[in-house]
């Protein structure tokens, strides 16, 4: 298994006004959007949900996801595509909110 290349990002010792960077309104909206997304994910078939979580939440490769779920890599690709399309349909108008956050 290959290691991902480092992004070159270095940790910062200083964070200026981290608490004020996110307003309560923004934080509430983020929580609301997360809940909508979680509800939409729950409505997907179990395997499709697992594919999306592994691929996009855990940032795993197609090959890693295929190995974990004991699926063919092409099956992971097609399930990812279909599950994302279905998720967009389920989110409807909320999808635009996710894209702008």
Tell me what you see in this structure.
By secondary structure, the protein is mostly helical. Helices cover 67% and strands 0% of the residues. Helix 3 packs antiparallel against helix 4. The chain is elongated.
Keywords:
101 residues, 6 helices
What's the tally of helices?
Answer: 6
Largest sheet: none
Helical percent range? Answer: 55-70%
Rg over C-alpha atoms, rounded to the nearest angstrom: 17 Å
Strand content is under 5%
- Mean pLDDT rating: 79
What is the overall silhouette?
Answer: elongated
Unreliable parts = 15-20
Please tally the β strands and state the result.
0
Structural class: mainly alpha
User: What's the SSE pattern?
Assistant: HHHHHH
Oligomer: single chain
Calculate the terminal CA-CA distance, rounded to whole Å: 33 Å
Topology:
Layout: H1 18-21, H2 24-42, H3 46-57, H4 62-69, H5 73-91, H6 94-99
């Amino acid at each position: 298994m290959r290691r991902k290349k480092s992004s070159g990002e270095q940790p910062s010792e200083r964070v200026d006004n981290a608490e004020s960077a996110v307003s309560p309104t923004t934080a509430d909206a983020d929580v609301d959007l997360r809940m909508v997304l979680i509800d939409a994910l729950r409505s997907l078939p179990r395997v499709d949900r697992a594919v999306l979580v592994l691929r996009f939440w855990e940032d795993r490769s197609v090959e890693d996801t295929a190995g974990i779920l004991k699926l063919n890599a092409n099956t992971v690709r097609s399930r990812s595509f279909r599950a994302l399309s279905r998720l967009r349909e389920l989110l409807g108008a909320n999808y635009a909110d996710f894209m702008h956050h």
